[in-house]
C-alpha cells in the first residue's frame, strides 16, 4: 500500500479467523482394535487415538473445501469482494489438472469477484503450510491490494486394510489471512528442510491409498524435526544478536522459548515423541556447549555422548533414548502440547489440516486473556519430504477480531460429542464402497443424504464426463450455487449396488 511517496507495509500479518470442519461420522478406535483382533491398546495407547472421522461417498475434497470456506465467510460476515487470494493445500486431488481452488470460485460467482489469486499447492501434508506461507507473503508484498486471503487445507486420509488404516481421518480448515491479526506470524522466524525420500507417496492415480514405509516415515519425520528445530534456534539467536551485541554464543534457545508447541499429527503419540525429541536436542546442545545440567535431564545422563545420526541405524539405542526423553519431557508435554491434540485424538490424521487443527485445539483450551502475548511454535511435515518450523505470537490486543476468533472455535468440543459413532464392520463396508467407486464416472453416491450435516456441501452426481455437481444442505433442503432447491436422488439400497463396486 502507498502513503504519498513512501510504501507502508502491513503490520502484524497472520491469522484473523479459523474455521474447522470434520465429518459427522466416526469409528471408535478401541472397538476397532477388537474388530481387527490386534492387541488391546495398539491404536488407543500406541497411536494415542480415541476416534477416527471418515467420509462416505457423498463427501470429497471439493465438498469439504466448499463447506469450510462457506462457513468461514458466514461466521465472520466476509464480503466475497474482500477476498483477493484463495489458495488450497491438499494431497487428496480429484483431478490431475483442475484445481480445487477453481471449484471454490463458485462461491464467488454471485458477487462477481473473479479477481482472486492462488491455485492448489501439493506436497503430501505440507501443501497447506506452503499455501499459508504464500498467502502471508502476498499480504506483505507489493502485489497486495488491501484485500484479505483465505488458506484452505482439506484432505481425506484413508488407507488399505492393515496396520496403517487406524491412522486415517478426514477434515478441512480455512484460515483468513491479513494484517492486524490476533495470531501474528513472526517475521523471519521460519526454517525449512526439504529432501528426497520415498517414505509415503501416491503413485497410483486410480487409488486413494498411499504407499507407506512406516519406519522410514517416522525416521524422516524426526530427522526433519531435528533440522528445523536447530535451524529455527539459529534464526532466533541471529535476531537476538542484532539487538544484543553482548549475547553469549552459548546462550542456546531451548524449549522454554515456546509457551505452546504444535506438530503435524499423523497420530497423537508421535507428537509426544516429537516434543521429547526437541528436549533431547536441547540436552545434547547444552552438554556440548558445557552448559550446566538441569535436574530435568537426569534420565538422559547416560546418553550425553551420542549423536542424533546414531539413532537412525541403531533401533535398540533409539528406543532407549526415546524412553528416557519421554520421561524427561512429560511435564513439558502436558504444559505445551497436550492441549493441541483435542481434535486429532478424536478425528485422526487429516493430512494438511492436522497442524492447524492442533493450533485451533490450543485456542479452544484457553481464553484469549490466558494466551495473549504467548508464543506458539509450529512444526509442519509432509512426506517426500518437506518440513518447516515457524511460530505465531498471540496479540496482546483484545480486539473484536480476537474475540470472534476464539468464540467461533468454542463449539468444537460440542461438535465432536454430537457426531455419530459407526460400528467397525459398517465403517469397513463404507471404505470398501469408497475404494470401488471414488474414481467412477456416471455415478450417483450411495451414502444417504440425510447423513450430511446442515450447512455442509455434498456430492450430487458425477456425470459421464467426470464433471462433479454439488449442493449445500440447508434447513429447507439441498440448494445449488444459484440458490435453487435441488432433488437429491434416493440413495441406492445396498443390494442394488453393483457387485463390482462393492467387492
- The helical percent reads 25-40%
Total helices: the number is 15
Strand-residue proportion: 15-25%
**Judging from the principal axes of the Cα atoms, what is the shape?**
globular
Average predicted confidence as pLDDT: 92
Radius of gyration, taken over Cα atoms and rounded to an integer in Å: 23 Å
Distance between the termini: 59 Å
Spans of at least 5 consecutive residues whose pLDDT stays below 50 are 492-503
Q: In what order do the strands lie side by side in the largest sheet?
A: 7-6-8-9-3-10-15-14-13
Structure classification: alpha+beta
Oligomer: single chain
**How many strand elements?**
20
Profile the largest sheet: 9 strands, mixed
Write the layout of secondary structure elements.
Elements: E1 2-3, E2 6-7, E3 14-21, E4 25-28, H1 29-36, E5 51-53, H2 61-75, E6 83-89, H3 100-104, E7 120-121, H4 127-139, E8 148-157, E9 169-178, E10 183-194, E11 200-201, E12 211-212, H5 214-243, E13 260-263, H6 268-289, H7 310-313, H8 315-336, H9 342-347, H10 354-365, H11 368-371, E14 375-382, E15 386-394, H12 400-409, H13 412-417, E16 420-421, H14 424-437, E17 457-462, E18 468-474, E19 477-479, E20 485-486, H15 499-502
Parallel strand pairs: 4-16, 6-7, 6-8, 13-14
Antiparallel strand pairs: 1-2, 3-9, 3-10, 4-5, 8-9, 10-15, 11-12, 14-15, 17-18, 18-19, 19-20
